[in-house]
Write a structure and sequence with these properties.
Radius of gyration of chain B: 21 Å
Number of strands of chain A: 2
Shape of chain B: globular
Helix content of chain A: over 70%
Number of strands of chain B: 3
Largest sheet of chain A: 2 strands, antiparallel
Strand content of chain B: under 5%
Mean pLDDT of chain B: 77
Structural class of chain A: mainly alpha
Oligomer: heterodimer
Radius of gyration of chain A: 23 Å
Low-confidence stretches of chain A: none
Helix content of chain B: over 70%
Largest interface: A-B, 90 and 82 residues
Shape of chain A: flat
């Protein structure tokens, strides 16, 4: 997403903290406070419009959580407790509440993550995590993982293409041998690439610390904006907690 | 292999999310320090690119049952190839990046996702690997066989860990017994795939660069050259052991479940008065009232399972610490 809304320009550490504050509020909100989930949904939609992330894009990315929604939909059928009849089916009342709880929180949480990733470039997210005191070793490993992910995935895909072009199309477990063996070979290649990259880094003056490029940090205004947004959401969560 | 298990927000209650997050941060912090000692300044490129490998390996999907696919977890594979400390760091990076960058798995669920997908299967899988290495001969086949059984165990341990957390932090009143038998049962089956792929992958690495297999560092070249397949009997005995331990735990309570009570009801004539639905209405179908005996049994089973997972993970952490102390500097 190469849009340039205000949301895209926000410093990543501020955005990450805002997202975390939002999902924590959603997570602690009791399920009976249906109105609170309405407020959260409205906030997410407003944030999507403000950051110019198309709602259709958001909805498309949300399909990734469908398996969990399916699991949640099974709960009313297998849960215990007082039963009720809906359209001729016997469902557990507690189970219905449980399913609602999981579905609402899953969709809201995933929407926030999607908005974060849609408005922040990947290296910026990792940099933001580093500014939020995630250890440098961890963010360094994450940076390298992301940098080499497409390369490794491409290599694996090429192995698969090579296999298919020779008339072999393994898709069942008893055909796992070629896949597994090429995975082993891929590990050797990845490890050796790591050693080569390390040698190249040493040759260019790497001393164990990743250089800090001194990029922009969140300004005071940005922190105030985040505090106001998260504070408002916290108030909703607290009111919901107290009122139920 | 594992079913899609990057749990979203709200799957377990907030206090479980918080307590698992605290445990995960502490354990991963320990693993980070150990990785730095093990790899020194090679840590970032080496662990980074092998993390990319694990991430890519997880993209392999295999059909499991109608409509569901399982994917490789790769936690035991990482533990055996890289050692448990680096393994935990690498798989944790994969899980964290999936949550923050690919919106896969909830941000508030990170605590239990890291615990279930990285810490438990890596340390637990490594402990199982070391156990099977002792049982099996020190040869090519022995290492590959131990890798397979360890990877299988790691997936089942992961499913067990999730069920235990469900016991404490369930967001819906689905009985622990049901979640436990469903999760462990399914993963006992699809874990065979994880084991098969891991064993073959470790074998492929052993064949070309045996020095890269952390879990086989103590093998010399003559032992590695011993490419005879491991005695089938030894492997079958090991496999049976795994199946027996896990199946024993699972079956422990299928006998004490309400089915037993239902049959009592049938014998005493309760059931004769109505269909299954009327039985569902009766207090006997309800865990809360009918489950007094069962509750004790499930709590006992939960205790045994919790102890099993904890012992496996604890053994893995201890082995990781001891490995580092006793390591040969030339072998890192």
């Amino acid at each position: 997403m190469h849009e340039h809304s205000r949301a895209h320009q926000l410093a990543p550490e501020a955005k990450i903290l805002a997202a975390l504050g939002f999902v924590v509020s959603v997570a602690v909100t009791p399920r009976q406070a249906v109105w609170a989930f309405g407020v959260y949904t409205a906030t997410v939609l407003a944030l999507a419009v403000w950051s110019r992330v198309p709602i259709r894009f958001l909805a498309f990315r949300l399909t990734a959580v469908l398996p969990f929604i399916v699991v949640a939909l099974i709960i009313p059928f297998v849960a215990s407790g007082e039963q009720t009849a809906v359209a001729g089916m016997r469902l557990s009342v507690e189970g219905l509440w449980g399913a609602w709880n999981i579905i609402a929180k899953t969709i809201l949480g995933a929407s926030v993550s999607i908005l974060l990733t849609a408005t922040t470039e990947i290296p910026e997210i990792i940099r933001g995590l580093g500014l939020l005191r995630v250890p440098a070793l961890f963010t360094g490993i994450a940076t390298f993982m992301i940098r080499y992910l497409e390369l490794v995935a491409d290599e694996l895909a090429r192995v698969r293409v090579a296999m298919t072009s020779r008339g072999y199309d393994p898709r069942w477990l008893h055909q796992a041998r070629p896949i597994a063996v090429s995975a082993g070979a891929m590990f050797v290649r990845s490890y050796e690439r790591g050693e080569r990259v390390h040698a190249a880094m040493l040759a260019r003056g790497f001393d164990g610390e990743m250089p800090d490029f001194g990029k922009r940090r969140a300004s005071r205004e940005e922190w105030i904006g985040v505090a106001v947004m998260v504070g408002a959401v916290f108030v909703v969560a607290i009111v919901a907690l107290v009122s139920t | 292999m594992i079913l899609a298990m990057h749990a979203p927000d709200g799957f377990l209650n907030p206090s479980t999310a918080l307590s698992t997050a605290i445990i995960s941060v502490m354990v991963v912090g320990l693993a980070l320090r150990q990785s730095r000692d093990q790899l020194a300044d090679r840590a970032i490129p080496l662990a980074g690119i092998t993390a990319a490998f694990i991430f890519a390996a997880q993209m392999f999907n295999f059909p499991v049952l109608a409509g569901t696919t399982g994917h490789l977890l790769g936690a035991a594979l990482a533990a055996i190839l890289l050692g448990p400390s680096v393994g935990v760091v690498v798989v944790t990076v994969v899980v964290v990046v999936q949550a923050f960058v690919f919106a896969d798995g909830g941000l508030t669920a990170l605590g239990y996702n890291i615990l279930n997908l990285a810490i438990v299967p890596v340390y637990g899988g490594y402990a199982a690997f070391r156990l099977f290495r002792r049982m099996f001969p020190s040869s090519f086949g022995g290492v590959a066989g131990a890798s397979g059984l360890a990877a299988w165990s790691s997936v089942v341990l992961s499913a067990m860990a999730f069920s235990i957390q469900w016991l404490f932090g369930a967001s819906a009143p689905v009985a622990f017994d049901d979640v436990f038998s469903a999760m462990v049962g399914v993963h006992l089956l699809i874990g065979i795939g994880e084991g098969l792929i891991s064993a073959l992958a470790v074998g492929a690495v052993l064949a070309s660069r045996p020095d890269l297999v952390h879990g086989a560092r103590n093998l010399d070249s003559t032992q590695l050259a011993d490419r005879r397949a491991m005695k089938t009997r030894t492997f079958v005995v090991g496999g049976l052991l795994v199946a027996l331990v896990f199946a024993g735990v699972v079956s422990q309570f299928s006998f004490d479940r309400p089915d037993g009570l239902e049959s009592v009801a049938e014998e005493t004539g309760f059931a004769a008065s109505g269909s299954e639905h009327t039985l569902a209405d009766s207090p006997f179908a309800d865990y809360a009232t009918a489950g007094i005996d069962n509750e004790k049994v499930s709590l006992a089973v939960a205790g045994v399972v919790g102890a099993l997972v904890t012992i496996a993970v604890g053994a893995g952490i201890l082995l990781a610490v001891r490995d580092r102390r006793g390591r040969d500097p030339a072998m890192v």
